[in-house]
Design brief:
The complex is a heterodimer.
Chain A lengths: L4 H9 L10 H36 L3 H20 L25 H6 L16
Chain B lengths: L11 H8 L3 H23 L2 H18 L9 H23 L26 H20 L2 H12 L4 H8 L3 H26 L1
Classes of the chains: A mainly alpha, B mainly alpha.
């Protein structure tokens, strides 16, 4: 006999009283705030680095464009030399192909159709135009 | 045609304060919905450490996304959707990673404290029967597919209505009813032997 749907629902409903152990949420909140602080510190570290770089760049005189162009040129040059030149493929040694070509004979039916009677053969040196 | 107005979100004040950087307001939201979300995640993963890590991720995601919360649904529905999505993603990854077997799942789920039912404390034999049934039920729950287990958890364990579940899972009420019907059939069959022995 199977349990009825109602009996099953009653059995499942008992699980709704399940709770984490005492004090779980206090520890959870401490860990949550700790994680948030770590993330914020990480984020602010990146943000402050970006701010310092952009402030330094802004403080430069118009020569900053020359610095920028120089840096871009250096980057492209380095990238050019570091770029792989392509893979050399060694030629495979030539080896004889072991393959025999057998001329195919015309089918026997075609041979039978050929007209080999003397009238069609002509004589030696005779040319028909 | 008149559009039915939605009742105001009871968490509106806490949400506004949390959005303005009041961490205590967000703590209050965690404490308010923590148990519900814990139940959802724990019954889906059957693993206490995974549940803890997932809950940290769920609340962190909600806290970071609070500015984008427009209030088109209640805060509860919104955070529940976050929990459902992150849990389903986690289960997919876990399945791909190791194919966790039932034996590796939290042994605590086999000793469900919810079954220590005070109304039957005077009848230890009945209590033992219930405990054994609960073990079978937990095993059967883990054999259900994730969408079916999710619906059973939300409807039968968490007491949500079909409409609420449909809203959270962004599907129709008909689909929810159908999944629930199928899941109940599966669970009834799985419990058949244990039920015969005990009752």
């Amino acid at each position: 006999m199977k349990p009825s749907v109602e009996q099953l629902e009653n059995l499942l409903a008992l699980k709704s009283h399940e709770r984490p152990e005492e004090g779980y949420w206090q520890d959870f909140l401490c860990e949550f705030h700790q994680r948030q602080r770590e993330q914020a510190a990480e984020k602010s570290g990146l943000v402050s680095f970006y701010n310092r770089v952009s402030a330094w760049f802004a403080d430069l005189s118009p020569s900053k464009w020359a610095y920028g162009a120089g840096l871009a040129y250096a980057t492209v040059t380095v990238a050019f030399f570091l770029m792989p030149k392509g893979v050399d493929v060694e030629n495979a040694p030539a080896s004889p192909v072991n393959y025999q070509v057998v001329p195919t004979a015309p089918p026997v039916e075609q041979l039978d159709e050929l007209d080999l009677s003397p009238s069609t053969q002509g004589s030696v040196g005779e040319q028909v135009f | 045609m008149f559009r039915q107005s939605r009742p105001p979100d009871p968490d509106q004040d806490l949400v506004t304060r949390a959005r303005e950087g009041d961490t205590r307001a967000f703590d209050a939201l965690i404490l308010k919905y923590g148990d519900k979300l814990y139940g959802l995640v724990y019954h889906m993963t059957s693993h206490k450490e995974d549940t803890h890590d997932l809950l940290q991720e769920i609340f962190a995601r909600a806290y970071q996304s609070l500015k984008s919360f427009r209030g088109s649904s209640s805060f509860y529905t919104w955070i529940y959707q976050i929990a459902v999505n992150l849990t389903l993603n986690f289960l997919k990854k876990r399945k791909r990673r190791s194919g966790l077997s039932l034996n590796e799942l939290d042994s605590a789920i086999h000793q469900d404290p919810a079954l220590i039912d005070s109304t039957h404390e005077a009848n230890p034999e009945r209590q033992t029967n219930l405990n054994e049934l609960q073990v079978k039920l937990n095993e059967a729950m883990q054999k259900l597919s994730e969408p079916h287990r999710m619906v059973v958890t939300m409807f039968d364990i968490q007491g949500m209505s079909h409409g609420e579940i449909a809203k959270v899972l962004k599907t129709s009420e008909g689909t929810i009813r159908s999944r629930l019907h199928y899941a109940h059939l599966q669970l009834q069959s799985a419990l058949q032997d244990a039920w015969n022995e005990r009752f």
